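2024-03-11 09:14:02 INFO worker-7 job=invfold-0412 stage=load source=structure_tokens
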């Protein structure tokens, strides 16, 4: 089940209308909203700091990963995502690697084309990476079913002392397509 860590996820604070895109924000307290954690840890190996190629580091990007299906986001069709260690995904390659703090989209500037279930500075380089048995960032996509999951598991928030993990977080974004409808669901692990 999904549970909010701390405060509710940030809504777009710009107050701008999303035009003709029809996006809505709902939380688990509203009728008809069911959240279900999607466990992908047994399906794929995580991205970790111990990998030989492109090891996870502070402000890390995965590079573009194939979905195997297309996701419509603000009128653009995307078939790849870029996972960032700071709790967000992008639909395009970018040099922007830092934490996302509720920038309005769409916008002509960078960052753009992102979904941030927990966009904050996560310190994946801590020697105490996490106490969970499977810490890391997981990605799974099922082209036949038209869904993808990215899970950030037991990643500590950045701490200025750099000595101890701070408030480890586990959360995920689930993307799916049902005909012409594309949705993103944020899930937060119970503490």
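2024-03-11 09:14:09 INFO worker-7 stage=emit residues=191
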């Amino acid at each position: 089940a999904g549970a909010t860590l701390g405060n509710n996820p940030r809504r777009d604070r710009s107050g701008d209308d999303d035009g003709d895109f029809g996006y809505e924000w709902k939380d688990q307290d509203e009728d008809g909203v069911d959240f279900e954690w999607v466990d992908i840890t047994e399906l794929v190996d995580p991205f970790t700091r111990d990998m030989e190629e492109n090891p996870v580091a502070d402000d890390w990007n995965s590079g573009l990963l194939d979905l195997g299906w297309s996701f419509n986001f603000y009128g653009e069709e995307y078939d790849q995502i870029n996972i960032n260690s700071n709790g967000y995904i992008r639909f395009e390659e970018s040099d922007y690697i830092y934490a996302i703090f509720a920038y309005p989209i769409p916008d002509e500037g960078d960052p753009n084309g992102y979904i941030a279930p927990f966009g904050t500075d996560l310190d994946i380089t801590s020697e105490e990476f996490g106490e969970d048995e499977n810490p890391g960032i997981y990605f799974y996509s099922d082209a036949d079913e038209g869904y993808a999951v990215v899970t950030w598991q037991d990643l500590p928030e950045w701490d200025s002392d750099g000595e101890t993990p701070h408030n480890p977080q586990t959360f995920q974004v689930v993307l799916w397509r049902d005909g012409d409808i594309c949705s993103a669901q944020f899930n937060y692990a119970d503490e």
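2024-03-11 09:14:09 INFO worker-7 stage=report msg="The radius of gyration is 16 Å."
2024-03-11 09:14:10 INFO worker-7 job finished
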